[in-house]
Structure formats: structure tokens, C-alpha cells
Amino acid sequence: VVGFLMMTAVRSIDWTDYEIAIPAFLAIVLMPFTYSISAGIGAGFIAFAVLKTARGKAREVSPLMWGAAALFVIYFLRDPIEQLLS
Fold it and tell me: How large a percentage of the chain has pLDDT more than 90?
């Protein structure tokens, strides 16, 4: 039921706008392939911030989104950093 409800929101995504479509696609695809909702959401947040910055629209990204993207980068890099230090 949860997956069905999540997929009903897909039709409202503007698939012609790459700044929106690519992060949404990453979030949708990575959740089932990684068996982790947080991995999918994190990839979407990071991709959104990176794409907006690459297109020169970094000011359109809210401070909360920047903070969440930064925390997800730390979350994804935690294990490699711990392995490097030990």
C-alpha cells in the first residue's frame, strides 16, 4: 500500500525539467535497489543541490535543503572515513 501511494505522486513530477526529474528518478530507483529509504532520499537531496549549483541556480536551494544535503553527504561518507582512520 505504501509503495502504491508513493507511486501516485510520480505523475505530478515535471519530467521535462531535468533539475527536478533527475533527483526524483534517483530517489525512486535507489530506494528499492539499495533496500534503504534514506539512501534514496539522500541521493535525491544531494543530486538536487548539485544540479541547481551546476546550472548556476544555487540561490534557489533553500538553506534547509543545503543542510540536509550536507548531512546526507556526511552520512554516505561516514563508513569510508571510519575505515580510512582505523
Answer: 86
